[in-house]
Design goal:
mainly alpha, 39% helix, 5% strand
């Protein structure tokens, strides 16, 4: 997963779970989770069956090739699919320790019966997210957005849609026991079933296809302000809400002040330096459309960047 740094995250957290990565083990590696998804059709088509890296990601719920929902458990015994448990107790390679076998009952996952139950529109949206992860950018409402900023905002949007307090009003069925572990008592997409995440993928896809009009309309109809949406970013107070998500909510639903993230500030600093050969904090603040031209955090990022450039030259 470290290869996704710069595409899915700007950096990997030293502690805690990684956003979008589904856990296969939890609670001191003792509790099994349904965090590994597979497509039986892809495993059948492979000359040598292997697990795709994206199958561990929460936003990947369907296979755009075979147009079916990914499975996260053995269809025979119901055990979670966990690759690293296949060779426990084995000291020599055997036919059982292969990617398409269930670690518990030995069933062949390639033989799981799967039907094409995904419409073309949803399949296109799934492919759009996977392409964004591959190339590092996406077009949102006519604006190019870096993938790290896009997935940061998408996590906030999905978490908002996953909340039972207004999910029904937004056209999503309330959760009815689909969360794998309710005892965790926290908002986390990483502990939500594949069925639930598929519903979130479809709803968010509809919003992005008509960005931002449909989201603003639905929130206005329910009387929801930006504070209801942005509360899901409070676990990371040092990071601002990505601009592509913040701007339409700010313009149409409330008047809160935009606070750019450190990553967004740094991108603008690099662009200004490449254009002018030097960088000033007030110019960076102006380009970020901040209400103040004197910001200590922006000044510190500019000073640190300039210091690194000077040390590199020396």
């Amino acid at each position: 997963m470290e290869s996704l740094v710069g595409l899915l995250w700007n950096e990997i957290e030293a502690r805690g779970a990684r956003k979008w990565v589904l856990p296969t083990l939890d609670k001191h590696r003792k509790t099994l989770r349904f965090g590994q998804q597979v497509c039986p059709g892809c495993l059948r088509d492979d000359a040598v069956p292997y697990f795709r890296k994206s199958w561990r990601l929460a936003f990947h719920t369907i296979c755009p090739v075979h147009r079916n929902t990914l499975i996260d458990r053995c269809p025979c015994c119901g055990a979670p699919i966990i690759l690293e448990r296949l060779d426990i107790g084995m000291f020599v390679p055997t036919s059982q320790a292969v990617a398409y076998r269930c670690w518990k009952c030995g069933a062949d996952l390639r033989e799981a019966v799967q039907f094409s139950d995904v419409d073309l529109e949803l399949s296109k949206h799934q492919m759009l997210l996977l392409d964004c992860l591959r190339r590092g950018w996406i077009n949102v409402g006519g604006r190019v957005v870096y993938s790290t900023q896009f997935f940061e905002g998408l996590w906030i949007l999905w978490s908002f849609l996953d909340d039972n307090r207004w999910s029904k009003g937004l056209g999503i069925d309330p959760q009815d026991g689909t969360r794998e572990d309710r005892s965790m008592n926290r908002q986390s997409l990483s502990h939500t079933s594949t069925k639930r995440r598929r519903a979130l993928l479809e709803k968010a896809g509809n919003y992005l296809n008509d960005w931002p009009d449909r989201l603003v309309h639905d929130m206005s109809k329910l009387g929801l302000s930006g504070g209801k949406l942005f509360r899901f970013q409070k676990h990371y107070p040092s990071r601002g809400v990505p601009f592509w998500l913040w701007e339409p909510v700010h313009l149409f639903l409330d008047g809160t002040m935009y606070i750019p993230s450190d990553a967004e500030v740094l991108e603008v600093v690099r662009w200004v330096f490449a254009r002018d050969g030097f960088v000033r904090a007030n110019e960076v603040a102006r380009l970020l459309n901040m209400r103040t031209r004197s910001n200590a955090r922006v000044f510190e990022i500019c000073r640190t960047f300039s210091g690194r450039r000077l040390n590199t030259r020396q």
